[in-house]
Specification:
- The mean pLDDT is 96.
- The protein has helices at 10-19, 25-32, 36-48, 71-79, 95-99, 145-159, 226-241, 248-258, and strands spanning 2-6, 52-56, 60-65, 85-92, 105-112, 130-136, 166-168, 172-175, 178-188, 195-202, 265-270, 273-282, 288-292, 295-299, 303-305.
- An 8-stranded mixed β-sheet has the order 1-4-5-6-10-9-8-7.
- It is elongated, with a radius of gyration of 21 Å.
- Helix 4 (71-79) runs parallel beside helix 7.
- It folds into 3 domains: 2-65, Orthogonal Bundle (Arc Repressor Mutant, subunit A), CATH 1.10.10; 71-258, BirA Bifunctional Protein, domain 2; 265-305, SH3 type barrels.
- By secondary structure, the protein is of the alpha+beta class.
- The structure holds biotin (BTN).
Length: 306
């Protein structure tokens, strides 16, 4: 299944009508100023997306049930934030790869066959998790990109406040000390001010593989669905993204408040080098400040262990 929802998608308007109660094809057609065939086609698209819609004599179309998640359900929050298209796949290799193809879209998948994590790792992407990528037109300079990564972490962490989520540098979100979300920001092209794809993977109800159970968790116990989480994350993300780069200081303070890392003794691997020390701060440029036996190290990216 692949669904693409655009701002002017008749299916979106038809769905809104159906949610108010049974309605005839003719009534919808008149209200929306489209043909009855267009209404029928929209209904077929909605069925493909998992909506159960009955056509009943003398009653009209009846929305019997809605899927747990669909691009139509989350289109409003995307369009309200300037997104042009919402793509929803039942299965795809990687939403980040797809999102690189076009600026201003959101790509969501129910599962990924080649989900990618940071440092070339694999990202387990079984059904039940929330896997999506936002492709952003150029807005920030290269040197501001560490801020975007940290900002994304804040957006997710605030969305998961019901689970008392915390941030592990550089951008893991933890619940109960275990990783529940990872963020992979990738630059598209080589411009001074590049387009960026922000990929977010959140373990919602997907099972955690045995070999990862000590370090990873999901949100199953909280009974919150993908739709609600997606809307919160995307709403938060764009509210914060619009503040960049000018109001970075506000976001930096928020990152520090939500941090699980600051104050801890950590080890950070950057390529072949291993730094050890106390994580003391995130500086104005988005670097982690490490006090390594009195020597101050500024680290922009790496793998953090504690
Ligand atoms: C990490 O290593 O912590 C980052 C994980 C990022 C996973 C997300 S899932 C959606 C998007 N598509 C991918 O292939 N990766 C990111």
């Amino acid at each position: 299944m692949k669904i693409v929802v655009r701002r002017d998608d008749a299916a979106l308007a038809v769905l809104k009508s159906l949610k108010k109660g049974p309605v005839s094809g003719e009534e919808i057609a008149t209200k929306l100023g489209v043909s009855r065939t267009a209404v029928w086609k929209a209904v077929e698209k909605l069925k493909k997306a998992g909506y159960v819609i009955d056509a009943r004599k003398r009653v009209g179309y009846v929305l019997v049930s809605s899927p747990e998640f669909s691009a139509y359900e989350v289109a409003d929050v995307c369009f309200a934030n300037g997104i042009l298209e919402v793509h929803h796949y039942s299965s795809i290799d990687s939403t980040n790869e797809k999102a690189k193809e076009k600026q201003g879209i959101v790509v969501i998948a129910d599962r990924q066959t080649a989900g990618r994590g940071r440092r070339g790792r694999r990202w387990y992407s079984e059904e039940g998790g929330l896997y999506f990528s936002i492709s952003l037109p150029p807005h920030l300079n290269m040197e501001d990109l560490p801020k975007l990564t940290l900002t994304t972490g804040v957006a997710v962490c605030e969305a998961l406040s019901f689970a008392n989520a915390k941030l592990k540098w550089p951008n893991d979100v933890l619940v109960g000390g275990k990783k529940v979300c990872g963020v992979l920001c990738e630059v598209v092209g080589e411009a001074e001010s590049p387009a960026v794809v922000v990929g977010i993977g959140i373990n919602v109800t997907n099972p955690i593989p045995d070999e990862l159970k000590d370090i990873a968790t999901n949100l199953l116990e909280f009974g919150v669905g993908r739709k609600e989480i997606f809307e919160k994350v995307v709403g938060n993300f764009f509210r914060l993204y619009r503040k960049l780069p000018s109001d970075w200081e506000e976001i930096r303070q928020r990152w520090k408040e939500l941090s699980d890392t600051l104050g801890r003794i950590v080890e950070i691997r950057v390529a072949e080098r291993l730094y050890r020390g106390i994580a003391v701060d995130i500086d104005e440029s988005g670097a982690l400040i490490l006090d390594s036996n009195g020597k101050v190290e500024r680290i922009f990216s790496g793998e953090c262990f504690y």
